[in-house]
Structure prediction request, 97 residues.
Amino acid sequence: MAAIQIVRFKLNAGSNVEAFQALNERFQREVVPTLAGLIRREATVSNDGEYLLVLRYKDVESAQKAGGSDTSDISKQFMSFIDMTSLSVSFHTIISE
Prediction:
C-alpha cells in the first residue's frame, strides 16, 4: 500500500534561508529522482519558518529505507541546515484516496 512520510523541521539559527532553499531545489532535481519507491515530494514552509516535507512512496518499506539510502554530498549539506532538536519524521499508510 502507498505511504506518506511527513518531515517537519526548522533551520539552525543563523542559517541562510536563500542558500537552504536553493539547496532544496538541487535536492529536488538531483536526489529525489534516485530514491527508490518515491512517487512525489513536496516541500513547504510556514510563516514561522517551520519546513514541512510531504513524500509519497509506493509503500512504507520504501519510505523507511529511503532516508538511509542517500549519502550524497547534497543530502549531507541539506541535513547540516536542520536544527535536529526540531526534526520529526512520521510514516502513514494511505487507507483511502
Q: What stands out?
A: Residues 17-30 form the longest helix (14 residues). The radius of gyration is 13 Å. The mean pLDDT is 94. Residues 2 and 96 are 10 Å apart (CA to CA).
